[in-house]
Amino acid sequence: MKLKINYLLLLFVVFAFQAKADQKNDKYTAEVTKVLRKQILAEANWALTQAPITVTAQSSPRSAGTKHDFFSEGDYWWPDPSNPKGPYIQKDGLTNPDNFVAHRLAMIRFSKIIGALASAYKITGDEKYVKHAFVHLKAWFVNSETLMNPNLLFAQAIQGRFTGRGIGIIDTIQLMEVAQGVFVMQHSKAANKAALAEIKKWFASYLTWLTTHQYGKDEMNAENNHGTCWTMQVASFAKLTGNKDLLNFCRERFKTVLLPNQMAADGSFPRELKRTKPYGYSLFNLDAMTTLCQILADKENNLWAFKLTDGRTMKKGIEYMYPFVADKSTWPLPKDVMYWDYWPVAQPFLVFGAKQFQNDTWLATWKKLDHQPKVEEVIRNLPIRNPLIWL
Predict the structure, then answer these.
(1) How far is CA 236 from CA 175, 385, 391, in A?
(2) Does the structure show a pLDDT above 50 at 20?
(3) From 4, 194, 233, 384, which residue has the greatest number of CB atoms within 10 Å?
(4) Residue 15 reports pLDDT greater than 70
């Protein structure tokens, strides 16, 4: 009898502790909702008025693919002044304004629409947001006339050099909020079940391409933010499709490759610091790392708590970068060669980290920053613009 009473007491303590933790976490979600609610509903109302625009709406004569193939060009590659019709030459950190960007912009727009509609649905429970989201989802992934092929064979092409490169896979980080939006809305009464199955089939096909094609393998093995973003995408799409093997693969890759090979003892990312845009790239890689933790962490695998033998953790990464976000003037390295004035914005690592580590200071800084950046380069490097659907 005494053992039974002690066991019940233990259960009571465990449940009370969990309830307290849940209450704290709910506090952060409530705070994020309060900050973003007006913006989310406004963006969702805009989204309700938008018709789908997919990769088939515009094409480039420089693309080696079909109208269904996503096409983009290497950002930092320019015509050679000494040989204008010859292969392009590289100018690191300097974006060529004459590149074909229509597909990239269409995908970003798609991500904005689905992210806004999914966020509004999460706040209100109104099925109209789901119904309209599926109009766009079907256009991109189901309808034969407008769908995008599930590969990135022609992304980040370089005129006169490559029709596509593995490095181009980073362009589909914009599909992560699409996948997460579907994940949030999939049990709605307004969700089209037949279309949902086709959408998941599309992402499953893309995952196969990402993990088997040489471009995907090259990107997986990249030692900087590209390797982080490959893993982040695979984790996001594997979550939607229920691919447990790939989720576990991504967890192991974070523990054994990404964190040990990219983070220095002080929490910085040396490979990003060596670039011509060290500040922006450091923010970008930290956002990607923390988003990866947010996607992959569960009761059995809390990547937020994972620590290397020398003490490196995700928290240390946030602690390194946070002071330079709170006060950018303290940044000890050269300014970025482009877009220096437009960072930081409401970086997702702040809100994810704040909730995970119960840090009100990080959340307060996130609240003050720009939640609606307008500069295309900033938007392109901020794939998590709707944090509510990830909490």
Answers:
(1) 9, 15, 14
(2) no
(3) 233
(4) no
